[in-house]
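ARCHIVE CARD
Drawer: 12
Card no.: 0347
Subject: one protein chain, sequence and derived structure
Cross-reference: see card 0346
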Amino acid sequence: MNRDDAIEAISDQSTVWDCLVIGGGATGLGTALDAISRGYRVLLVEKHDFAKATSSRATKLVHGGVRYLEQGNIGLVREALRERGLLLRNAPHLSHPLQFVIPAYHYWQVPFYGVGLKVYDWLSGKLSLGRSQILSRRKTAELLPNVEQEGLKGGILYLDGQFDDARLAIALLRTLTALGGLAANYVQVIGLTKSGEKISGAVLRDAETSKEYQVRAKVVINATGIFSDSIRLFDDPDVAKVIAVAQGSHLVLPPKFLQSKSALMVPKTSDGRVLFAIPWHNRLVIGTTDFGIPEPQEEPRIQRHEVEFILSEAGKYLAQDPTESDVLACFSGLRPLVKHGSGTRTAKLSRSHTVIVSPSGLITITGGKWTTYRYMGEDCINHFEQVVGAEHRPSRTGDLALHGSTRDPAIFNAPEHLACYGTDRPEIETRARANATLAEPIHPALPYLTAEVDWAIENEMARTVEDILARRTRAILLDAKAAAEAAPKVAQLLGNRLGRDKDWVSQQSQQFQALAENYKL
């Protein structure tokens, strides 16, 4: 997988792509993969890095959405549960079932939530991960040793899925390119071109060289998430905006606060939201919040009220109350929600996706969530076929194993974080054995080997220190301070590999260290 190959293809003005996909997050990658799986000629471009924004800042859950049952959105839950099952089957190295326990502090909560979760079980059908169970007080405390014991009456256990969002994006990218699709990060769309009233392509700018290219495409697909309206405005400067932006934030704590392989779920916090406390990469991730913000941002920061809310709510359910000094990292993500009318709280807006086809033929796909990325891509390419008048070709992604997919037990051995590479793991370990420098960790407080950095540069289109420490590895989310300290070492290796000078190396290190401040309290 080589960025230079994609840039060379972009520069070939004789090429007419079947579809140009704008956006390298979950939606764009899923859409591009669905198109290439049907045999269409596909180019994907991303302004920053793959999964830079929303798609690397999720709650790390592949789930149907228990809270949507309360809202009566049965269709969305059923759709998401089916997609959950497909993802766990197609990418077992990146996703797995996870037990969730709802602690009950009132007797009425046990039957109330128990009945709702039986419906959840039923909706999952043949792709069920297992049945929910009513738990005694003793069993609840056994599964969640650090849960608040005072007033505990029992609990309810159910199963959902967990995954690594940014690593899944890379698996999608590598599957796309293996099938013949082309993709490039750090390539920005700066305008759309038209033939008469119909869109015929786009003008692209390579951020690394500042060169501009005009590419032709039968259809342009806008899959830019929270930035969808900005691309729609290129098409029609008078178009009404449809995106409402909601911020969700998380705190990352040491594992001592839960000491369990099961997750804790609070179905209704003081603001009516769901709160999760989830074991992930030997850390505890707690969140999420939900509040509307006026405009999308490239680097959202956690707000003081979010920190206070998460710590306060977590303290009600954990035996040891976490404090700000315990927080290893924090992160915020922005969700694209499709609004209908005005004045609606973001927590109440639908998480269903929407496909919009403009009179010029621009296709915009937005909304949705990581769990349903595959179905969103399938739906979008169905619309693409209608726009171009092509004979329908069935999607293949429902049964398409993603890059690295394996159930080989050896791949899941310690150190467990290497399992995310799937079938690539042995090659990374071979590099580490062959070179003592590559066998070293990038930082004593982080699990990652220098060989993983080397691998990401050569095989995963990593171009910056941020690409490596935020998304190819998840260092900035596991310990923001340690990640910042690892930046100079990573910058030097990256500079050596890409042929950059010492000023570039120094600048990369400084830029990442400044960014890491956003991930610290």
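Annotation on reverse: The domain at 96-161+244-340 is CATH 3.30.9.10 (D-Amino Acid Oxidase; Chain A, domain 2). The chain has a mean pLDDT of 95.
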